[in-house]
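Let us work through a complete example step by step.
Step 1: write down the sequence.
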Amino acid sequence: MKTLNDLREFYLKTLRPDLQILEGRRREIIKKLAFIGVPSLVILALSLAYVLINELKVWYVLVPFFFLLFIFFIAYYFLTRKFIVDFKGIVIQRIVGFIDEKLRYRQDGYITVPEFKESKIFKHRIDRYKGDDLVWGKLGATVIKFSEVHAEYKTESRDSKGNKQTHWHTIFKGLFYMADFNKHIIGETVVLPDTAERLFGRLGKKLQSLNKPRGHLIHLEDPEFEKNFAVYGDDQVQARYILSTSLMKRIMDFKKKTDKDIYLSFRGTKVYIAIRFTKDLFEPKIFRTLLDFKVIQEYFEDLTLAYAIVEDLNLNTRIWGKR
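Step 2: predict the structure and record it as tokens.
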């Protein structure tokens, strides 16, 4: 696996010349946004002063505020969309190749809805789904595939005047992985973050057991693992076969290292892993210089999570074989 020293050398020799060109384009975008944004702020300040002096209602200033905000976001979208495509095609594509030449990258590709559902990690109905930054290939003996994913469901309500309102709720946003698993699996075993036991102790344990749509609650003999994860499956023996003492330790170590909510499921010949993120991971930093090595390091560290998964969960070990 590549080190930070390798990345620094790659950054100086390969990435920096193109980053300098992209940095020039980024600064031009900032100038154009400032050309729109500064006069807008002046207009808003004058409107607010007029409202306060004349003791008018607040909505007199809210109308121009939301109008100018809308104009700003429209301008931001059109000014940055080509820049984002070019940035990913130059920078993210090259970082993926630098990490491992056997990996492939497609910025508009993503894990599909059927693949996402196949994991059985998230049971909720999906009403809106999108993704990007698909990476796939072979790391050692393990075929892996991952992308950013954002799955949502909607609810509808009515306000006091009877107007219908639509609300969108996130099911999952983050990196979603599919990889070969080194054991043959019949049925399914799902590992979820155990928020119930952490919050409610023994009562949380009881609440877990009532989660019937998930199947049977699997009781394991690792207190630390059980405190952090709830395991469901259709076969107690197989779940213990999959979640060996060493694998539970590796999952715990990976959780501590990443400090993220992690979900796993084991089905057929695959392991599915979902890691929650709130930010968009591989987008260029429009309001931050691209020439800061730490920016490139962030992309590198997020992308090398795939390597960490394969190595930390020991997926390249093939001692069990598959049927």
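Step 3: interpret the result. DSSP finds ten helices and nine strands in the chain.
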